[in-house]
Amino acid sequence: MIEQQTQCVVRAVRADEWERVRDLRIEALKDPAAPVAFLETLAQAEGREDSFWQDRAAGASHGTSVRQFIAEDADGTWVGSVTLLVERAGDQDFFEGKIEGDQGHLVGVYVRPEHRGTGVIEALCEAALEWGFGLEEPVLERVRLFVHEDNGRAQAFYQRFGFEFAGNAVPFPEGDGAMELELAIARPA
Ligand SMILES: CC(C)(COP(=O)(O)OP(=O)(O)OC[C@H]1O[C@@H](n2cnc3c(N)ncnc32)[C@H](O)[C@@H]1OP(=O)(O)O)[C@@H](O)C(=O)NCCC(=O)NCCS
Q: Which amino acid residue places its CA nearest to atom 29 of ligand 1?
């Protein structure tokens, strides 16, 4: 667990916390930034069965395929989350490209508005990368993410944190020609 400056604790979700996983995701999808931040819509998330959220929380709580981290305030409120997906060499990725080497893919990046600019997102990303790069199998060569070209705030944070533009862009689904830019951070030496 990582403590950061606003007294939040960052930790992985537990399987029995699926309702909180669902509620934070639905809150994120109501954020004004959601149309450029997430590929899922509010209607899609609200239409999902409980079993979807139960499976998601369980899958993200253990194992080496995916891990979701949350930041919990002193009063127990969840104030932000990130999820790291493990992508294996040879797999097809979201955008129908082929994954060249084992890598992490950071998704579901969200901090509640009143906690932005406080360091919560640094602590979440540090926890996710520590987990991903700490795996013995598979060994992740890098961690990547995609960010909408108009999401300036997220881009500024990712670059401050150490992600660099990877020179790849893919069309944002249903985005009227808008692009998602790939950023990546290499495995520490
Ligand atoms: C993306 C997010 C997690 C970043 O966390 P945060 O706490 O807001 O990040 P920070 O405030 O530490 O850093 C953001 C930086 O962008 C700057 N910024 C703010 N608004 C900006 C804008 N419109 N354009 C460019 N930069 C902007 C901030 O000043 C800050 O710069 P600094 O590094 O010089 O201080 C958070 O804003 C969020 O949850 N946004 C909504 C969901 C989202 O966009 N997720 C990412 C999907 S890829």
A: 153
Q: Report the nearest-CA residue for atom 34 of ligand 1.
A: 156
- Identify any residues that bridge with 68 across adjacent strands, giving them in sequence order: 83
Residue nearest to atom 1 of ligand 1 (CA): 154
The answer to whether position 48 is within a domain reads yes
Neighbours of 32 (CB within 10 A): 8
Q: Cα-flanking dihedrals φ and ψ of residue 38, to 5°?
A: -130, 150
pLDDT in tens, the chain (189 residues): 554 556 899 999 999 999 999 999 999 999 999 999 999 999 999 999 999 999 999 999 999 999 999 999 999 999 999 999 999 999 987 776 789 999 999 999 999 999 999 999 999 999 999 999 999 999 999 999 999 999 999 999 999 999 999 999 988 887 678 999 999 999 998
Dig out the tokens for 7 from the structure: 């007294």
From the list 117, 35, 99, 28, the residue with the least C-alpha distance to 68 is 28
176 inside domain: no
| 158 CA to centre of ligand 1 in angstroms | 8
For residue 72, the enclosing domain spans: 2-144
Ligand 1 pocket test target in 106, 157, 160 with most atoms within 8 Å of CB? 157
Indicate the number of domains in the chain.
Answer: 1
The closest residue, in CA terms, to atom 12 on ligand 1 is: 117
Distance from Cα 115 to the centre of ligand 1, integer Å: 11
